[in-house]
């Protein structure tokens, strides 16, 4: 499971030109799922994301988590995070999980994230055409991979 995490002052996702979800101060998580991902990947990634100290404290030092600041979470599925670009000029997406694996894990991620956050999590629509508008705060952008926990 891969995630690109961006600290934002505000963000919104529009899916299929009508489904709009918005957040204020918080994190946008672009989430990619591969065919070998399991519930353990979901649990590990959520814990890392919500406890990561990337929000400023009173001394302007990144020392607080999204939980500490009461921030919001916007999660958007993005299969292109598993693009393979080694051969040619057209990326291969063969490492991205098919719907039968990806959808249940995506839904599990959303449910567990909401439980961990103690509030609803905003999200896009899996597989939809989406546009994301965000103001990256910092900028702070972090990449995580549950199969490469050294990142």
Walk me through this protein's architecture.
The structure is a single chain. The protein is of the alpha/beta class. It has a single domain (2-145), classed as D-tyrosyl-trna(Tyr) Deacylase, Chain: A, CATH 3.50.80.10. It has 3 helices and 8 strands. It has helices at 39-51, 66-69, 99-117; strands at residues 2-15, 19-23, 26-32, 55-56, 62-64, 72-77, 122-123, 130-145. The strands form 2 sheets. Strands 1, 2, 3, 6, 7 and 8 form a 6-stranded mixed sheet that branches. Strands 4-5 form a two-stranded antiparallel ribbon. Strand 6, helix 3 and strand 7 (122-123) form a beta-alpha-beta unit.
List the helices and strands and how they pair.
Elements: E1 2-15, E2 19-23, E3 26-32, H1 39-51, E4 55-56, E5 62-64, H2 66-69, E6 72-77, H3 99-117, E7 122-123, E8 130-145
Could you spell the SSE succession in H and E letters?
EEEHEEHEHEE
CATH architectural group: 3-Layer(bba) Sandwich
Level of helix content?
A: 10-25%
First-last Cα distance: 13 Å
* Estimated structural class: alpha/beta
Rg from alpha-carbon coordinates: 15 Å
Number of discrete domains: 1
- Portion of residues in beta strands equals 35-45%
Mean pLDDT: 96
Sheet having the most strands: 6 strands, mixed
What would a concise description of this structure say?
Helix content is 24%, strand content 36%. It is an alpha/beta fold and 151 residues long.
């Amino acid at each position: 499971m891969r995630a690109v995490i961006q600290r934002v002052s505000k963000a919104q996702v529009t899916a299929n030109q009508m489904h709009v979800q918005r957040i204020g101060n918080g994190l946008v998580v672009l989430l990619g799922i591969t065919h070998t991902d399991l519930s353990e990947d979901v649990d590990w990634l959520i814990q890392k994301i919500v406890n990561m100290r990337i929000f400023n404290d009173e001394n302007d030092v990144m020392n607080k988590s999204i939980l500490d600041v009461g921030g919001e979470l916007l999660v958007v599925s993005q299969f292109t995070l598993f693009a393979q670009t080694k051969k040619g000029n057209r990326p291969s997406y063969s490492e991205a999980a098919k719907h039968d694996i990806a959808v249940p894990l995506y839904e599990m991620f959303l449910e567990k994230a909401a439980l961990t956050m103690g509030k609803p999590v905003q999200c896009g629509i899996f597989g939809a055409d989406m546009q994301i508008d965000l103001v990256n705060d910092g900028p702070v952008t972090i990449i995580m991979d549950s199969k490469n926990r050294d990142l």
